[in-house]
Design brief:
Elements lengths: L39 H11 L9 H21 L1
Helix pairs in contact: 1-2
């Protein structure tokens, strides 16, 4: 008959290493590919987003706003046609 075993003790779990807030991490590419839509205005906006790959995130906001406006204008133009 096997001897009863004691329950396992606490398990050491490594904690994630945090980057201090004053140290900026290097941007790394996401590697997300671009799939053409066939609509030149939409594809141009997607190309602008693709160009952000590897760029620090503080530079993203202006491009996101520009692409959003371009896409909104493109949709509005479809409603007018």
């Amino acid at each position: 008959m096997p001897e009863p075993q004691a329950p396992p003790g606490p398990v050491a779990v490594p904690l994630p290493v945090a980057v201090p807030p004053h140290v900026a991490a290097e941007p790394s590419p996401l590697g997300v590919g671009l799939t053409p839509t066939g609509h030149p205005a939409v594809d141009a906006g997607l190309a602008r987003l693709e160009a952000l790959d590897g760029v620090p995130t503080d530079a993203h906001v202006a491009v996101y706003e520009d692409v959003h406006q371009r896409l909104a204008d493109t949709l509005a133009a479809l409603d007018r046609d």
